[in-house]
Amino acid sequence: MSSITTHPINSRWAAQDPSKLQLYSFPTPNGVKVSIALEEMGVPYEAHFVGLTDADVKSPEFLALNPNNKIPAIIDPNGPDGTQIELFESGAILIYLAEKTGKFLSKDPAKRYETLKWVMFQMGGLGPMFGQLGFFYKFAGAKMEDPTARDRYIGEAKRLLAVVDKQLEGKDWIVGEYSIADMMIAPWLNALEFYGAKEVVGYHDLKNVPAYVDRFYARPAVEKAKNIPPIPD
């Protein structure tokens, strides 16, 4: 495995301090999960803005780090046993960071797997379904005259919101204590504002979710990280 300075990605997104973890990202719900985790965990890092256009994510330099051409991705020169590690997929990155720092993922086996269950819930359900909702409600899919796809993802978003709302009953955070599950889930709930979809999915009728999202974004680390890396003017 190459070092950061010799990795192909460094020729386009150069590390200023190769001793730090390098984050390659864009401030989408998937991207900010990692910047939030890094801020919450106090890991020194550098953030590199990677645009969502093919010119960036399908460039040879980025594909050398993530062959799936999606943000976020990281290179940590101080990985397991002091060796460099390269990772993509936000869930894998957050689990790695939690294990690296010993923070926000319980060492108690039962609580650990409870947390990982909700991490996987976001990766397999909440993120993909809300992403499709955004496409068919706000972006190109909204122009389709056939409402089938739009109605499907509105309905699925409502169902998933009800699952989260029930899980939050009597709790401030998804598994009781603040964890990487919250860093995974809350940014996607917040995306409903960007999609202009809160009304159509009944967001304000939910008992627990709105206060949960407000509580999450009131955290200083989240407030700082939500726009990292900043979008260039």
UniProtKB/TrEMBL annotation:
Top-rank lineage group of the source organism: Bacteria
Segments passing through the bilayer: none
A Pfam cross-reference name: GST_N
Where does the record place the GST C-terminal domain?
108-233
Among SUPFAM superfamilies, the record links this protein to: GST C-terminal domain-like, Thioredoxin-like
Q: Which PANTHER family match?
A: GLUTATHIONE S-TRANSFERASE GSTA, GLUTATHIONE S-TRANSFERASE-RELATED
**Name by which UniProt lists this protein:** GST-like protein
What is this organism's lineage? Bacteria, Pseudomonadati, Pseudomonadota, Alphaproteobacteria, Rhodobacterales
